[in-house]
Amino acid sequence: MPGQPDVSLITSWHAGSPGMQDHPLLGLVQALRKGIGVVDLYFLSHQEIPWYMDAVERALARQEPGSPVRGLTFRDTLPPADYGCPLRFAAALTPGDITLIAEALLDLMVREYGGRLVGPRPRFAALATYWPLITDDHVQYRDLSIKAVRNSLLLAEALGCRHVEIVGGSAFSLTDGGDIPEGLSRDDYARRVRRRRILRLARSLTRVVDPAAEWTLPEDAARAWEENGTVKNADEPEVWRRNPPGGDPPNEAPWLCLEMEPGAAFLIRHVKDYHHVHQWLPPAARPRVLLNIDLAHMFLARTGDPGEPPETHAGERQLNYLKAHELESHIGHFHCSDHARTHASDLCPGSYHFYRPDYEPWLKLAWRLTGGPRFSNAVAVEMEACSDIHEIQRAIGRTQSWLKLAGEAPAETSETSETTSLSVKSGIIMAVDIVNSTSVLAREGVNPEKGALRIDAAVSALCRKIHAHRGSVYSFTGDGVVAFFDPSHFTDDAACAHAALKANDGLFAAMRDGLQARGFFGDLEARELALRTSLLRGAVRIPDHGHLRHQVLGADVIIACRLLTAAEPPPARGTRKPSPGTPKQSTFTVISHAIHAHVRRASRWEWNQLSVEMLKQFKGLNWALLEESLTALYQWQPHPPIPPRPVKGLKKVRDRRR
Amino acid sequence: MGEHVDPYRRYLHYPHATDGAAKSSQHVDLSDFYTGAENEGVCREVTRLLTAFQTEVYYGQRHYAACPAWRDELTVQSPDGEPAPRRFAIRVHLFERRGGEAGRYLGFVSLRPPGFVPRDRGEGDSAFNYIIDAELTAPKHMQRPRYHVLNTTAASARLGVVPFRSSVYSCPGPNADRGSTCAHLAVSQALHLIMGRFACRPISQIEFDWHLWRATAAPTRPDWVAAPESQSIGKMGRRGANLREALAVVRASCNGGGYRMAVEPREDPAGLSLSIAEKNRAARYLTDSLANGLPVVAVVRTDHLLPPAKRREMEAEVERDPSGDTAKRLRAPHCVLVLGMHLLHSGEEAWPEYGLAWREPGVIPLEDEKGETGAGESREQREDRAELPGRVIIHDTLTKGPFYECLISDFLNAAEAAYRDSQGLDDGECRGVHLLALGPRELSLGVPELREYAEKTLKTYLVGLREKDPVPSPALETLRAYMGACDLSPGETSSPDQWRLVCRFTGSTEVDTRYRGMRPEVEESPTSTAPYFWAVEIRHPRARRKRPANLFMAPAELAPAMVLVWESGQEDADTAVATARALEGLPPLRILHFPPPSPCQDSQM
User: Fold this and answer.
1) Contact residues for A143 (Cβ-Cβ < 8 A; gap 6+)
2) Quick check: B204 and A265 CB within 8 A?
3) Rounded distance, CA A595 to CA A498, Å?
4) pLDDT higher for B257 or B271?
5) Which of A280, A384, B337, B581 is deepest in the core (most CB within 10 A)?
6) Contact A169/B at CB under 8 A
7) CA–CA separation, A535 vs A593, rounded Å?
């Protein structure tokens, strides 16, 4: 269903000027502190490398004693060139490193986020990269770039985003031109050079998404393309050959989004160049490569060929090409900024081009694409090296207001507003309630202000814990919250269910730590406080604007809240009480059958099914609904100690280190 | 910077956008980006850059920033060593140092990031290794009257800086000193100056070489020149570019246009050097272009722009260098951008035969008390010669830096010397002075051709005036009325040389508004949709209007005798048609004049 895309911010807005080094990841951290919760991570700048290295090494240092990787460092084992250069560093990372980096980034995001905790969670919408040597003449640099792109995809996946923006590199090198065949005009030769590099880019991208195979293209097909621009017709048999045959990699997220850059120096100058790259990808890679629309670049998109029309309406021409060749569904992501006629600094949208006629058709297209299977549902503001947060906020504000304008939302009181202003999502609803909150946190003798501080500390900790597991808190219920886990932020429904349950597991500890940090957790709290939670798979509506903006609505939300009653077992059932000496149970949870189906094998806990008769003992439940659609399960095992989490790919880390 | 009304005060914010000026010690260098010797070297470069400003530098806000030239270099040039240099350049805002604090805002400079190692060159007196380009306001003294310096607010605005009147100065890239660098930089700087007015697009070195390589292909266009052999893009860049090729690149990729101006030594029987009249003509072309806001690219010989002491030093070095490289470098022609001029006000600035004979207060007369020059010619008062430049202001990217001021005589000598060895076979550029003016895409008719056509048209009318029974013509009536109103005798109006031609480069609507009250000779003159026109005002230097009684008369009411209008794009100096037209002339598209016999009536000039 079409909807309003989120507005994201690419973290390259701050390139980390010396003297402003509050944090190595200044673009990310400053944005979060200012409450900008949707960001595209720029991966990777020079000054950020030490932070990434530290993140991995900190995690390795926390490994169990005896672990072969405990305490290993990059600095001990990698040559300085590998950690002084973003390309070499990104290419040298192992899957284990990337997992640790992603965890550190997500942790940083939750810790540093200064915006409202109730509302959409802070998240990474996409990754932005700059590995232009992917088409370089030097094989060594091409290989490094391919590895860097591959690792960027892994990082994106680990961060929960599905799109990685890449660039196509240069259109030529300074050594081109010396081998021009006799009789060939330079314009024709220039086209050949470009086509040759387009094919080279296609090969490199194929190696990114299908590293296990070698794809070959018959020489005559390559020559026909290079010399005559003959593109394979979609109806013709596939010309690429895979070695070994079969075994195509899964064609799913995260996707590579190829960006266009205006100017003769760049390989991908406009949509047509992207189209050619896409046409020359083998079947394994084709679904994985999408188009990144940089609006500022669209307005400047030219071929530079003789006889090209004047530099007006370039954006319109690109849009027309997209429509004529049915490429709209190829769009994975948007970047938004403005340029003057030259490809100079990124500026706030509206600096040189106008909402009408320049931005409007593109933003309307973003609306139409939102909710689509391969779209990021975000428009990322790109203000590279701007360094001024106030200018960044202006750019974000203008993009948001223009997006609203493009959605043409009618008056909120009208009938249609209910359908156009709400986005419907299916996912996991989590309701959380603090047991004994009134008597313990806001108890007698505590003045209202202090009581409010206690609630603040407890609820903030709960929210952050939910954010850490990619859930969003959409409602604050006084002494609890209602959260939502959107499967589109995960690789699949199972991952979403696992994350929700994992968040649930850590809620009480997070609340306890949050209260302790402010001196609010004593014996009474330890004895009396507990959590009731319910996790239910259902459909919700979250308005993206209007008076109930960013609130979660729907019948399933109400059911999830009512299920909290079931989370505390009926007093009549004495068997649920723990035997003396076992730790106090701190979280009482009800989950639905749909969630249980995903987590039953992985869960460390035992689950007991509650019969309808049992459920009927609880007040407030809509029995008719429950009997028909819900099998509720109840867990009552106490929290076991949480063992150190094994890290995937550690063997590779160890091998590499040695 | 004490003035709180100065909008550029914000560029003192440092280190955060919310902080005021930090400790003054942080404004004396760039040690927060560069360290040790690198820091000192970068600061020396910035100081050298601002030589013409004659001030100490106060470094303001600095941060990483986008820079188109640096981006293109990174994209295309295969790396040496580290495959991923820093993506962003460093932008530093510069102020005059006034005591311990910041004074006037000077602009900002883009620097290559720390650790940058130039490939082909070491650090010399004239080399800028770290500076990529700079948006600089004109030095203080160039903001006085009689200076005419081109600048723009568009260049700084596109980089997100509060607009100020600046002229871009670009420095050679990592492959400095190679062939096309100076041509590219001069062209790019010129395009920056006019991009706000004509929507041109500046071009990076990489793009320039790419288009240069294409433009030197087999001549699929009349203005393209065939290269002698197949060469790579890099080699073509190292070979260099002449003005013709530079113009071809501008037309092909920069949404720009322009015209070449050549003055060849035709009066010299040996064809070696320009006569005084020819130099005057070159100065006139230069003036006409600059006065209309069109920057001019010129080719000069390096050693002619060196100050005497430096020149002697270099010549000594030439003698010491057996390889001949120093001599080659010293005598190599290179491109500079002429972006301004200072009107002639001293006889020391020009050669004696320059032709100045202006007696009004405020201008130092060149001739003696008898109104004669040293050559003993009888003189006439020529106000149009008084507006010729005594000095020109150039951006010399290879040797002198920005806003370098030199005498027009030295400049023309340097320009002439650049082509002294030219055989004129390869590139069609013979001995003499060669200039290239850049403007909008629709501009191809140059000042030389324009003046030629105007003179031929005027000559036709003047011949008509002398005839006893001329064919009746509104133009003749107009001229006759103008001469009567201005007390001009037939003897001082018989030749086109005696008239003053003022060339104005105008937009389509400006022709109508500027010459409101004038009407076309032919009411149904052909309409044109061209966006730009050349208007040539026919005036006489000795015109003195009769004033009725003691009525006030504004300068704008000194209307020309007539205005001849040509489309700016209806001519191309490089076509065969143009060659033919140079002989025959090209009639104007429109002729505007006042209804005789009251030339001043209703004039809005």
Assistant:
1) A91
2) yes
3) 9
4) B257
5) B337
6) yes
7) 10
Mean pLDDT on A114-126: 93
The conformation of residue B301, written as its DSSP 8-state character, comes to: E
Q: Does A252 touch chain B (CB under 8 A)?
A: no
CA B375, CA B335: separation in Å to the nearest integer? 34
Q: Which residues of B touch A177 (CB under 8 A)?
A: 213, 230-236
- Nearby residues of B139 by Cβ (< 8 Å), 6 or more positions away: B52, B53, B54, B403
- Residue of chain A whose Cα is closest to the Cα of B68: A344
Burial of residue A212 (number of CB atoms within 10 Å: 0-12, 13-18, 19+): exposed
CA neighbor of A20 nearest in space, from B357, B14, B316: B14
Q: What pLDDT, in 10s, does the model give residues B309-334?
A: 777 777 888 888 888 777 777 778 88
Q: Which of B215, B274, B237, B267 is nearest to B419 (CA)?
A: B274
For the residues B161-170, what does the mean pLDDT come to?
94
> For residue range A123-134, what is the model confidence (pLDDT) as tens digits?
999 999 999 999
pLDDT of residue B233: 86
The reply to whether B363 touches chain A by the CB within 8 Å rule is no
Residues B102/B12, Cβ–Cβ less than 8 Å: yes
**Which amino acid, one-letter code, is at B231?**
Q
* Amino acid code (one letter) for B383: E
What distance in Å separates the CA atoms of residue A395 and residue A336, rounded to the nearest whole number?
Answer: 9
A249/B388 Cα distance (integer angstroms): 74
Asked if B87 lies within 8 A of A174 by C-beta distance, the reply is no
Q: Which amino acid is at B552?
A: F
DSSP string, A335-367: EE-B--SSS---B-TTSSS-IIIIIHHHHHHHH
Q: Enumerate the residues of chain A whose CB falls inside 8 A of the CB of residue B250.
A: none
pTM: 0.88
Find, in chain A, the residue whose alpha carbon is nearest to that of B217: A186
Report the complex ipTM: 0.86
Task: With CB atoms and an 8 Å threshold, state whether A266 touches B75.
Answer: yes
Task: Please give the Cα distance from B440 to B258 (Å, whole number).
Answer: 7
Per-residue HEC secondary structure of A479-538 comes to CEEEEEECHHHCCCHHHHHHHHHHHHHHHHHHHHHHHHHCCCCCHHHHHHCEEEEEEEEE
